[in-house]
Amino acid sequence: MTSVGPITFPLDGYDAVIFDCDGTLVDSMPAHFEAWCEALALHGAGGVFKEDVFIAMGGRPTLDIVIDLNSQNDLKLDPEAVAFAKRESFLKRMPAVRLIKEVAEFAESLRGKKPMGIATGGTRMVVEKTLQAVGCSDWFDEVVTADDVKEGKPSPEIFLRAAELLGVEPSRCLVLEDAPAGILAAQRAGMQVIAIPSPLESFPS
């Protein structure tokens, strides 16, 4: 497991917990960044995606990110083709993915006590493989992905959908998120939010 250091989790005041996946429950962001770099290089756009931009765009669907990269860098990348290459590149790196210790321990402590869900900007196939790889796919009552909504984070749609499936009012949901877009989405959904810091030593310096 990877550590992010001490986090204060509230003991009450909520009836369900919704977790982001990448960078919140699972230390997978370095693998995703490497996958992005490889996919973009394959399509002649190596070096356009800097680490700080990647972090700022965290939590957003892959297709949306490619569209933004096209706009920002005057490129004509095929979003579907880049997304496919990025997915395949990430799947190769799955063995490097680890649970984030503090968040995983919190989730385990709630199993059987409160409804729990995942709300992620990833695709269902990749998210399910990620949860299986780290051994926690059976912890959650519902998993909502980019495939299940019309608008990705920072739209609140994905969190509202998760709350609906869990049968809990949005105001009674606690969200754990690491990315700015995800934090904003949860706030827009009227939910309580805990910001998860980046895993210690996650990216090489």
TrEMBL record:
Signal peptide region: none
Source organism, top-level taxon: Bacteria
MF-aspect GO terms: sugar-phosphatase activity
InterPro entries per UniProt: HAD-like_sf (IPR036412), HAD-like_SPP (IPR051806), HAD-SF_hydro_IA (IPR006439), HAD_sf (IPR023214), PGP-like_dom2 (IPR023198)
Protein name according to UniProt: HAD family phosphatase
Organism from which the protein derives: Luteolibacter pohnpeiensis
